[in-house]
Amino acid sequence: MYLSITHNVFTVMEILAPLLKNKQKQKLLWDHIVKNVAKPSMKAFIYAYLYLVLPKAIGRILSAIKKNKYDKILPRIKKTMINALHPLKFPVFSASLVAGINILEPIVLGIFKKNKVLKNPTSRLFFATLVSALVSAIVTFPAYQNHVLGYGRYNSLDLTLLLATRAMDTALSSSLAKVAPPSLAKYGDALLFIASCTCIMFCWFFYPEKLPPSYHKWITSAANMDVELWEVLRLVRQKKIVYGEHGPYEDFLIPYFEKYGEDPRRANTVRTQPIECEAVHAFKTKSCEIHALWRFWRGFEFAASVYTPLNLLMLLFPSKTKMSVRLLRAIRSSVRSSCFLGAYIGFYWYAVCLARTRLFPKLFPHIPRVRFDDTICAASGAFACGFSSFIETAQRRKELALFVAPRGLGTLVPSEPTKKNLAIESIVFSISLAVLVAYSKNNSSSVRGIFGKGLKQVFNIQSFE
């Protein structure tokens, strides 16, 4: 191994020696450093800086306005801007990562050429980029990881999950594009969305610790679910409530029934088996279908209050398209997206009812009654809600799938910050980044979505082709 490293070092020196002896070649080297190292690194720094600072600055402004502390706005923004320049924060980390890749890439490519590794120039560039990105990430990521770990576990883990899912999506879509039938490409994003939502929603119900607290809180708010109902089904799953048997939690739902003015005797899990559907419906109706429609409407209202102002805000930006056309497009987009979220919630609740009482117990009478409440109902709802993505356009479906996939993957991996887990995360981050950058160099359109556009902007794709 030592002889191999020594040989490669001497090879690099042989490549650089002629450049250092000739002034014209020295200028070429300098131009290369400026164009292919300094500029991409600065771009990466600026994008990462804006990504880190802008949301925090806007939050500081809104908070100060809300509290009538206008004199605090400038000092807080200044502090935010200065803190973002810390050498271990995301902007400097991004710049260092890109600089390392672009410094190593021509060196590794030169070594490959010198040793006649891979005759195809495209393949040679791909693997040179892959190796360079892998080394740069392995060197730079651990310091950043250790720094942001002090602010919360998900600061680095979310980034790693994002890169991992994008890398798998890029590798699979690039490999399967040539052999997969058109139907797979057509429904691939929907299947990814359904699979991700199944994992996320099942964990939301029974394993909330696998989700970031803010993420779980947002889902709970959108689903409009009473906490008591969520907790009682968890007690059933934990076997702290057993239908038909006396126990400390048999009257757990009495306050819930009293809150809605219902007979508290119906809340007892010894007397009433299983929990009534009307109680699951928050006593709005006895009909599961009407309840699902009510849930749809609540989700629609919630989504409309978010999407409509955003789409209307986009009308303020100049465009060559007529205002009437843009307004109609904004309204259509808001309605479609609101229907998507309404259907997401409505499908979930209706599937829960089908699994608990309406359908599954009749189809599978030999399954113990408690099994429908402690597993099957939540799993059915988690699976069904993902089908709401078919309401959206194909482009929007792709964006939704890529958005939820990292969080879906996150439910399957341990989040505890042990040394082993952090080391595995560092390796996964490095490999994922290397795959993304290498594919982007090979074909800039292979990395889908805004992430691919960002890589294309930061890296000089045509540098060594």
UniProtKB/TrEMBL annotation:
<keyword id="KW-0812">Transmembrane</keyword>
<keyword id="KW-0472">Membrane</keyword>
<feature type="transmembrane region" description="Helical">
    <location>
        <begin position="338"/>
        <end position="359"/>
    </location>
</feature>
<protein>
    <recommendedName>
        <fullName>Transmembrane protein 135 N-terminal domain-containing protein</fullName>
    </recommendedName>
</protein>
<feature type="transmembrane region" description="Helical">
    <location>
        <begin position="84"/>
        <end position="104"/>
    </location>
</feature>
<feature type="transmembrane region" description="Helical">
    <location>
        <begin position="124"/>
        <end position="144"/>
    </location>
</feature>
<keyword id="KW-1133">Transmembrane helix</keyword>
<feature type="transmembrane region" description="Helical">
    <location>
        <begin position="190"/>
        <end position="207"/>
    </location>
</feature>
<dbReference type="InterPro" id="IPR026749">
    <property type="entry name" value="Tmem135"/>
</dbReference>
<feature type="transmembrane region" description="Helical">
    <location>
        <begin position="44"/>
        <end position="63"/>
    </location>
</feature>
